[in-house]
């Protein structure tokens, strides 16, 4: 039987390695590596959760263009974002926060 100290040590080692794989770098750095300069001015990081990278684009033209390149972008981003499964694009001005809908009575 393995002493408890070694068991706990190996469990903690495994958790550290899992955390290192799960953490990702600065989103802007990831976008700079995966997108061309021209594309960068039209795209902004929104979120990354459950393997889905969400990006904001500033027009429907860029939304269409980037959707055509989605598989290639997933392949490129997978180097820095292990576990990426999909990219979802939405239209919005870079720097603009999404509007919250509220049901308030007047």
Mean pLDDT: 79
The string of secondary-structure elements, in order, is HHHEEHHE
Gap between N and C termini? 70 Å
The rounded Rg comes to 19 Å
Using the coordinates above, name the CATH class of one domain.
Alpha Beta
Major sheet: 3 strands, mixed
CATH architecture of one domain: 2-Layer Sandwich
Low-pLDDT ranges: 98-106
Describe, in plain words, how this protein is organized in 3D:
It is a single chain. This protein has a domain of 68 residues: GMP Synthetase, Chain A, domain 3 (2-Layer Sandwich), CATH 3.30.300.180. It has 5 helices and 3 strands. Strand 1 and strand 2 form a beta hairpin. The longest helix has 19 residues. 11% of the residues are buried. The C terminus is likely disordered.
Question: What labels describe this entry?
Answer:
3 strands; 18% strand; GMP Synthetase, Chain A, domain 3; 45% helix; 106 residues; disordered C terminus
């Amino acid at each position: 039987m393995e002493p408890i100290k070694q068991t706990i040590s190996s469990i903690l080692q495994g958790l550290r390695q899992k955390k290192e794989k799960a953490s990702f770098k600065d989103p802007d750095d990831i976008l700079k590596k995966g997108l061309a300069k021209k594309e960068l001015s039209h795209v902004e990081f929104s979120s990354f959760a459950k393997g889905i990278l969400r990006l904001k684009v500033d027009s429907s033209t860029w939304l269409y263009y980037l959707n055509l390149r989605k598989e290639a972008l997933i392949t490129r981003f997978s180097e820095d974002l292990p576990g990426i499964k999909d990219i979802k694009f939405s239209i919005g001005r870079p720097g603009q926060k999404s509007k919250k809908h509220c049901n308030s009575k007047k």
